Amino acid sequence: MHGDTRPGRPQGPFALSRRRFLATTVGGLGITATLSPVTGALPASGPVPSAPPRPALLGGQPVRQAAFPGWPEWDDRDEQAVTGVVRSGRWFRGNGRKVEEFEQAYARLVGAKYCVATANGTSALLASLGGMEIGPGDEVLLPPYTFVATLNVILDHYALPVFVDSDLETFQIDATKVEAAITDRTAAMIPVHLGGGTADLDTILEVGQRRKIRVIEDACQSHLAEWRHRRVGTLGDTGCFSFQASKNLNSGEGGAILTNDPELAVRCYAWHNNGRARHVQGYDFRYQGGRAANLRLTEFQGALLLSQMERLEAQSRTRETNAAHLTRLLNEIPGIHPARMLPGCTRNAWHLYMFRYDPAAFAGLTRERFLDALRAEGIPASPGYSPLNREAFIQATLNSRGYRRIYPADLLDQWADRNACPENEKLCRTAVWFTQNMLLGEPSDMDQIATAIRKIQHHAGALQA
Ligand SMILES: *Cc1c(COP(=O)(O)O)cnc(C)c1O
Predict the structure, then answer these.
(1) In which order are the strands placed within the sheet that holds 255-259?
(2) Which of 60, 133, 297, 303 is in Cβ range 3.0-4.6 Å of 117 for a Cys bridge?
(3) What ligand 1 atom has the least distance to the C-alpha of 125?
């Protein structure tokens, strides 16, 4: 643990106050490497801070040598859970009980009536759209700042994706722009609760109800996140989760659909089970026919999820504590803008820690060079998503035989103009991400992240390639 636990105080030998930091760097842009940080606004009393040592990228010592906590975490309980399934010889949900048990436990945990476990998050989204009978001719709204799966499932159903621009401050879909994107073809929207935060569900659900448009919450990054004290994934028509290896609840691959609608529960189940209904008691409605697939979770995964789920609350609390500490530290650094949480977001799942980087506060140092410098200091960081709405494969898909047969030519030809997302372009150029496992250690890990960023800022001029 670190020594000084006062919140909001930058730690370490070069934890300058914000004002003094500005006086020592911004004033000397370009020559910060040779300029002593003690010139300028040093108070008359107090210890003289030493200059930040040389950046690791220029041959100095990295701020951090140790690895961040690994992911996933497991112990004997997880091993026994999986071995138990192996030894039972019941590896499939049709003859075992683990998937069923997990569905009940996950529905209870998150607060929904029904749960359908699926092979992964993509298939949860796919089966949600399938269960709603969304298909050719339908438009489906989504944000451009998301994982490609949110888009792929729309294309898989030969529906037309329509992007709604991002909000720069929160990184979430700009809910104020949803209504303007609706046409008489709009059948559903897939708001994404990105990074563990939440989209503006007040606006989205109100528009959905008033305009009679289905809402599929993509909560693949937001296990246990809350909107006004209710867990996300339970407020839309369906909520979709991923248990893929990187996610906050993990069985290598895995997914789930939550819903409170008994008919949708039956339809989604049938969609994921080759059109066949549940064999156990509970749902009395049997859906026959329709398009479907096999997207079932295995018993190994069901058992592993049951045991991994026992850690979820404690891990989530640790991430929350560390993220709050990191936000206090980063808010003190000019040019670093942590993603703001919407006021209605009462709990963030912190799948990602995201902020915007402003090169102007770093002597014009590019984001790519900043990321390289950060990684060299022992802090892994990612630039995040690139603009999904401009991916070339979308145009190729819209030009495909199937799409050309379904949609009027002018609708497809004007698609790119209609789907420009200027705010998202800015977001994609400036975002920086840390992954959830980096928040699973000690507050002193957060201090090191802030220290590394301050060090880079101090030497920004010298770091220009
Ligand atoms: C991970 C993820 C998915 C897809 O989940 P898989 O389990 O990888 O198929 C969908 N949407 C978002 C936002 C995700 O992060």
Answers:
(1) 114-118, 255-259, 238-242, 214-218, 186-189, 139-142, 160-163
(2) 297
(3) 10
Atom of ligand 1 nearest to the CA of 243: 7
Q: How far is the CA of 458 from the centre of ligand 1 (A)?
A: 38
For each of the domains in the chain, give its residue range(s) and CATH number, in order of start: 76-310 (3.40.640.10)
Angle between helices 121-131 and 262-272 (to 10 degrees): 120
Instruction: Tell me how far the alpha carbon of residue 79 lies from the centroid of ligand 1, in angstroms.
Output: 25
User: How far apart are the CA of 125 and the centre of ligand 1, in A?
Assistant: 9
For residue 62, the SS3 value is coil
pLDDT of res. 277: 85
Query: Cα–Cα distance between 241 and 191 in angstroms, integer?
Result: 13
CA of 195 to the centre of ligand 1 (A): 11
Q: For the segment 421-432, what is each residue's pLDDT rounded down to a tens digit?
A: 999 999 999 999
Half-sphere exposure of 3 (CA within 13 A, CB side): 3
pLDDT at 337 over 60: yes
Give the pLDDT confidence score for residue 177 in this predicted structure: 98
Secondary structure (3-state) at 217: strand
pLDDT 10s digits, 399-418 = 999 999 999 999 999 999 99
Residues near ligand 1 with C-beta < 6 Å? 120-122, 146-147, 149-150, 192, 218, 220-221, 242, 244, 255
Residue 440 has a pLDDT of 98
Instruction: Output the residue whose Cα is nearest ligand 1's atom 5.
Output: 121
Residue 132 in this model has a pLDDT that exceeds 90: yes
CA 122 to centroid of ligand 1, rounded, Å: 6
8 Å CB contact between 264 and 132: yes
Are 373 and 456 within 8 A, CB to CB? yes
3-state helix, strand, coil in the chain (%, to 5): 40, 15, 45
In one-letter notation, the amino acid at residue 409 is A
